[in-house]
Specification:
Layout (H helix, E strand, L loop, with lengths): L2 H4 L6 H11 L7 E4 L9 H16 L3 E6 L9 H13 L9 E2 L4 H13 L3 E4 L3 H8 L16 H12 L9 E4 L14 E5 L13 E3 L1 H11 L4 E5 L6 H9 L11 E5 L11 H9 L14 H7 L3 H11 L10 H15 L2 E2 L1 E2 L2 E6 L8 E6 L9 E6 L2 E5 L3 E2 L10 E2 L3 E4 L4 E9 L5 E9 L16 E2 L2 E2 L4 E8 L14 H4 L5 E8 L11 E4 L3 E5 L8 E6 L8
Parallel strand pairs: 1-2, 2-3, 8-9, 10-25, 12-20, 16-17, 18-21, 23-27
Antiparallel strand pairs: 4-5, 5-6, 6-7, 11-24, 12-15, 13-14, 15-22, 18-19, 19-20, 23-24, 25-26, 26-27
The structure holds adenosine-5'-triphosphate and magnesium ion.
Adenosine-5'-triphosphate (ATP) binds next to helix 3 and strand 8.
Length: 556
């Protein structure tokens, strides 16, 4: 059984809270949500949040909603909505009912804003952006009340209605909560609840010209959906006061089983960036081929690279959930995919940098068929057909004219080596091309060594991979490395200066004929070379992305 299936459910502080809430009957069913803003593609950090929210719902027999937090139409797009749905489903999770949209609740948000105004807890403010900043104060200095703070309720109601009706220009006024301009939490100094934006919205069209702020819309959306545990990342810790303030001041929601917000630390991964703004920049500046470039930390990029849903879920389990800020090492992600593919990936042979070998004493003009195991440790995966014949390809790196020492386990003149799944061969002489490069290695083979040791008891050390030339399929190999050459590229605003110039190396070589109809994203271990999968954007072309090398090379 694969390791991914045997991981035990970890204890974490959120599970403890849920256990307590169920024990005290505060809640009888757990309801979580994953609330992406559709302003970019999801990344591996979102995968952490998805696995947490959907995973908790699964483990506690609860439900998890997919909710598009679409309150900022200027940056949002249907392309992102579609990609987010596809990524969550690909990760193996099912949302409860239809996807929700915060925009479904625009009319309710509006009514709740009116309720706050009626209670004297919100007002329309005409300070401009600069004045608002000055009035807000600083971390050390309290703010000052806006001159519009004490406008009468009836007038505020009229002004807010006029905002909705398009009676004010963008930036002319906002609706603010009336909380406390001296609060030590900046987010409580009369935060903005609504602003004017004459923007077309991907769900509501031109129905609205005022849009609610995240802090107002999110808690109410949670409450409308009967979310029990609203999980978000630590940067929203202070905003929890505002979350509670809004719900506590609305009659519909001021009750013990209303949602509560809990914060956990976000995933930071070394050698990459995770902020959507920065990922956007990589795409827009064409520093990568798109959101699904296999070097991107996006879910679609990792998928195209060959990561499996099980490996990403396993990764999320391994990193766990806490409140401690940290940077996760890349080798934890890579270990998760290696552990999956080591068990599950069929084996195959591919020659990435080919050198021709001619077996001079091979008697037949036709190659012979050989049955090789699909997986050396798992007979149940069956056999595959490979070929051996007079002309073969091996990798250039597997041949030296002279073996440097006795430990050398590859091919050299006068030295014997086993070809994987096949015979022992010995190199006799070479031929060079016009540039002086070795073009062919002439060898002999021992016809009595197929699947067995030499009869005379001589020892042959070293096994190299090969493909038979007449059946070999030409293929392109894309070898990926870290996208950035520094551990924390997020610090730099000039991406180009810290990008790894060798993050993509393309090679052309040959694969086994059995891969002719290999499926996109299906993983193979190309023996001695790494884990690869067929590119999911290459159509009929034989293009393989290297998911990960066989061993950890990051620490080296
Ligand atoms: P960014 O700041 O990069 O734009 P975001 O947090 O605004 O990301 P959202 O679409 O709002 O992106 O995120 C949806 C959910 O995913 C939120 O609950 C958010 O907390 C969570 N999330 C985002 N990034 C990470 C991360 N790196 N690790 C864990 N959870 C994350
Ligand atoms: Mg966000």
């Amino acid at each position: 059984m694969s390791k991914v299936d045997t991981v035990e459910r970890p204890v974490n502080f959120i599970r403890n809270i849920i256990d307590d809430d169920l024990a005290s009957h505060k809640h009888t069913q757990i309801q979580t949500r994953f609330p992406p803003e559709p302003n970019g593609y999801l990344h591996i950090g979102h995968a952490k949040s998805i696995c947490l929210n959907f995973g908790l719902a699964q483990d506690y027999n609860g439900l998890c909603n997919l909710r598009f937090d679409d309150t900022n139409p200027a940056k949002e797009d249907l392309e992102y909505v579609d990609s987010i749905k596809a990524d969550v489903a690909w990760l193996g999770f099912e949302w409860s009912g239809n996807p929700r949209y915060s925009s479904d609740y625009f009319e309710q948000f509006y009514r709740y804003a009116v309720e706050l105004i009626e209670k004297g807890l919100a007002y329309v403010c005409f300070l401009n952006a600069e004045e608002t900043r000055q009035y807000r104060g600083t971390l050390k200095e309290p703010g000052q009340n806006s001159p519009y703070r004490d406008t009468a309720v009836a007038e505020n109601l009229a002004l807010f209605a006029k905002m909705r009706a398009g009676g004010f220009k963008e930036g002319e006024c906002v609706l603010r909560a009336k909380i406390d301009m001296a609060s030590s939490f900046m987010c409580m100094r009369d935060p903005t609840l609504y602003r004017v934006r004459f923007e077309h919205h991907h769900q509501t069209g031109d129905a609205w010209c005022i849009y609610p702020m995240y802090d107002f819309a999110h808690c109410i959306s949670d409450a409308i959906e009967d979310i029990t545990h609203s999980l978000c990342t630590l940067e929203f810790q202070d905003n929890r006061r505002l979350y509670d303030w809004v719900l506590d001041n609305l009659n519909d929601f001021n009750k013990p089983d209303r949602p509560h917000q809990y914060e956990f630390s976000r995933l930071n991964l070394e050698y990459t960036v995770m902020s959507k703004r920065k990922l956007h920049q990589l795409v827009a500046d064409k520093l990568v081929s798109g959101w699904d470039d296999p070097r991107m930390p996006t879910i679609s990029g990792l998928r195209r690279r060959g990561y499996t849903p099980a490996s990403l879920r396993d990764f999320a389990e391994r990193i766990g959930i806490s409140k401690v800020d940290s940077v996760t090492e890349m080798n934890i992600l890579e270990a998760a995919i290696r552990d999956d593919l080591n068990v599950n990936a069929p084996r195959s042979m591919a020659v990435l940098n080919p050198l021709k070998v001619v077996i001079e004493n091979y008697p037949n003009s036709q190659p012979e068929s050989i049955q090789a195991p699909v997986h050396p440790q798992n007979e149940a995966m069956g056999k595959r057909e490979i070929f051996f014949g007079r002309e073969l390809y091996i990798d250039r790196a597997d041949f030296e004219m002279v073996a440097p020492d006795a430990k050398f386990q590859r091919l050299a003149l006068d030295k014997e080596i086993r070809l994987r799944n096949s015979y022992i061969i010995k190199a006799l002489r070479v031929e060079h091309d016009a540039q002086g490069q070795i073009s062919t290695v002439y060898c002999s083979y021992d016809h009595d060594t197929l699947g067995k040791n030499p009869a005379d008891g001589r020892k042959v050390k070293g096994v190299i991979h090969f493909v038979e030339a007449s059946h070999a399929l030409p293929a392109e190999f894309r070898l990926y490395d870290r996208l950035f050459s520094v551990a924390n590229p997020g610090k730099s605003d000039d991406f180009e200066s810290v990008m790894n110039p060798d993050s993509l190396v393309i090679q052309h070589g040959f694969i086994e004929p059995g891969l002719v109809n290999s499926l996109p994203e299906q993983a193979y271990q190309f023996e001695r070379e790494g884990y690869f999968c067929r590119d999911n954007q290459a159509g009929s072309a034989q293009i393989y992305n290297r998911t990960v090398a066989l061993r950890d090379t990051w620490g080296a």
